[in-house]
Structure formats: structure tokens, C-alpha cells
Amino acid sequence: MFVVISMVMVGCSTRDDDDDADGGVSVVVDAGTDGGLDGGLDAGPDGGFDAGFDAGTDGGLDAGADGGFDGGLDTGRCTQDTDCLALEFCHPTAKVCVQTCTTGADCPDTAKQCDALSSTDSRRICKCATDALCNVEDGSSNRVCSIQDSVCTPRCTEDAQCGEWQRCDTASGHCKARGDTGAPCTEEGQSNCDYGTHYCSSNVCTALWEPTCPNYTNFPNKDWLGTTGPILYGFRLLSVTTDTAICGSASPNRWDIALSAYSSTPFPALKSQLSGFFRVLVDGSTRDGLSHLLPGNSYTVSGENRERAELVVGVCLPTTGTALSGGFYFTNGNFFCFQAYR
Hints:
Blueprint lengths: L17 H17 L4 H35 L14 E3 L6 E3 L13 E6 L2 E7 L3 H4 L8 E3 L6 E3 L11 E4 L4 E4 L20 E4 L2 E4 L6 H4 L13 E12 L1 H4 L5 E10 L14 E4 L5 E3 L10 E4 L5 E10 L5 E8 L4 E7 L1
Antiparallel strand pairs: 1-2, 3-4, 5-6, 7-8, 9-10, 11-12, 12-16, 13-14, 13-17, 15-16, 17-18
Helix pairs in contact: 1-2
């Protein structure tokens, strides 16, 4: 008499659908094909091997790798409130699950500040203070404290991971207010526009003018320029008057020009304290810009942190002069060309 013993060896999967594939196939084959022939043998090797190995390997790998990825690097990504746990909701702009609170004691170490969601939404949530605290639980650098929303979010690597009108600063992993050409802005000067390359004009971030005047072409020290110093972004002709007392008889016409600038550091309160400001003539030679802040001309600073300034400069020209090619710059700032006509 020959007794045929069937053993069904089942492979292991590291995918989430392993339970369905393995459980479904194994049960049908064992129960339907071997019937009672494999009896305890299948229950041991198959049941033990699959249950143990799959639970340990698939479950462990999936819970560790997938769960670890979602739970660590991508915790709380959401599109709606139902994606979040109890006592959480989906942040309307950061698109991460945020924990509600009454006091800071309700919040985790990663975000200990309990504060209103925004000036227009009184729901209180746990807010973060630093990038380091956002990573205190796992000791990684996978998360950042959102500049706009003060909540812990995964580091971004591309603009698509950021909200509308935001861009990814890949160096820091932060989503920042987009400030390139066409982005919306308010007020004037830098506003939220990219520093050193754009300025706010008619509520739109606009690229700074490219210097093409002969003053710039003939200027030999272009390495003195940059995008980190005070930035000149606008001008207007105020007046052309005869002023022999200041300009002399050879070039008696005084052209007063108002220059607009913004800076990442406060402008000095007095024009006498201004430094690193220069005029470049058409031949490329340089003059101290303070010498063109003529008597009676104004110097006005504005903004909460004195981040904007209007400098009224005076240039003396002969009476025959009908146009002025101007060139000015701050050290480590942009070269600003303009053409004025009377």
C-alpha cells in the first residue's frame, strides 16, 4: 500500500497582500486537494512556517519598513480629516495631521506649543518651534518645523510636495512662500519675493532689471556685486533745476533722482551713516554715493525693521544735457541702471 503525503510549501511575501494570497491559496489547496491526507503535516510545516515566517518577515518588514517610512518620514500626510487619528485633523495648508490640545501639556515633545491654528481659526493645535524638536523622537533629520504653519512636516525635496504658491528650498527641506516671477506679493520692496533677484511690483513678484547700460558694461569691478547686500529696485525723476551754488557754472543743471532700495538688515536712520553706496559713471569709474546725497535731498527709511529706503541723489549736468544714464550699487548688491529724460 502506498501512502502519498502531500506537503504544500508556501513562499513568503513582503507585500501587504501576502495574507490574502497566501491565506487564500493555502486554505483552498490544503482543504480541497490534500483533504485529510496531509493531516497534521501541513498544519505543522505550512501553518507554522507561514504563520511564523510571514508574520515575522512580512509583518515585520511591512510594519517596520512601510510603517516606519509612513510613520517616521511621512507621518500624518493627509488630504482630509478622516485620514487622521482621533483628536487630530488635517491641517488645511500644511496637509499633515495635527493634534488638538487645550494646553501644552496635551502636546508631544516634538511640538509643545498649544496655540490657535491661525488668526482666523480658533481651533487649538500643537505647534513646533524648531526643526531639531520635530526630530527629537527618532533622532533623524527627516522632518522640519514649517515656517508658515509651525507644524512638523516631512522635509521636501521638490516643489510638488509644497502647497500652492510655495516652492521647496531643497537645502533646508522647507516649503517657502514662492517668490519668483509671477508670484503674488503685497506692499513694495522685497515683500515675500526672492531676495536679490526679485521685487514686489503691482502685487506681483517681478525680476529685477538686467543692467545693460554703458555704466555697467564699462564697470571693471563686477565681482563687488551680488545678491546679498542692499538691493536697488526702482527710480523716478523728481526734478531738473538750475543750481549753480551746488553744481557750478559748467554743469549747472541739477537732476534729482529718487532711488528705491530694500535690505535684509536695517538701513541706518541717518543718511550720514550710510555706507557701501556708490555711483558708476558712463566710463565705468566709481564715485562715493554719499557725495550725491546733496544738501536738501531726502533720505527716508520705512518698514517695521527699516528694510526699505528712498535715497534722493543729485547729479549735475550741462545745460545741453537732455538725458542721464545712471548707474548705482551697494556693495554685494545689484547694479542698478536707469535712463532719465527731461
